[in-house]
């Protein structure tokens, strides 16, 4: 892992959700604001297309959501 990646494997400016082009940076920002998956989806369009990003979004929530 480089400094820019974590267990999710995405670079900060890489799209986690290909359908919406939502970057890892944007998703982390919303998670840290306290948004749940529905809110992140509504605000960014992530997880509102093919659903292929579901696993990656779960990884990000597991890694960055306040415990
Ligand atoms: S990759 Fe996120 S909805 Fe398709």
Rough shape? globular
Total of DSSP H or I helical runs spanning 4+ residues: 3
Question: What is the C-level CATH assignment?
Answer: Mainly Alpha
Helix content: 40-55%
Mean pLDDT value: 92
Second-tier CATH architecture: Orthogonal Bundle
The count of strands amounts to: 2
Tell me about this structure.
This protein is mainly α and 67 residues long. It has a single domain, classed as Arc Repressor Mutant, subunit A, CATH 1.10.10.1100. Helix content is 42%, strand content 7%. The protein contains three helices and two strands. It has helices at residues 24-32, 37-44, 54-64, and strands at residues 15-17, 22-23. Strands 1-2 form a two-stranded antiparallel sheet. Helix 1 crosses helix 3 (54-64). The radius of gyration is 11 Å and the shape is globular. The termini are far apart. The structure holds FE2/S2 (inorganic) cluster. FE2/S2 (inorganic) cluster (FES) is lined by residues 17-19, 46-53. FE2/S2 (inorganic) cluster binds next to loops.
Summarize the structure.
It contains three helices and two strands; from the N terminus they run ββααα. The protein has about 70 residues and is mainly alpha-helical.
Descriptive keywords:
single chain; 67 residues; mainly alpha; Arc Repressor Mutant, subunit A; two-stranded antiparallel sheet; globular; binds FE2/S2 (inorganic) cluster
Write the layout of secondary structure elements.
Blueprint: E1 15-17, E2 22-23, H1 24-32, H2 37-44, H3 54-64
Antiparallel strand pairs: 1-2
Helix pairs in contact: 1-3
Bound molecules: FE2/S2 (inorganic) cluster (FES).
FE2/S2 (inorganic) cluster binds at residues 17-19, 46-53.
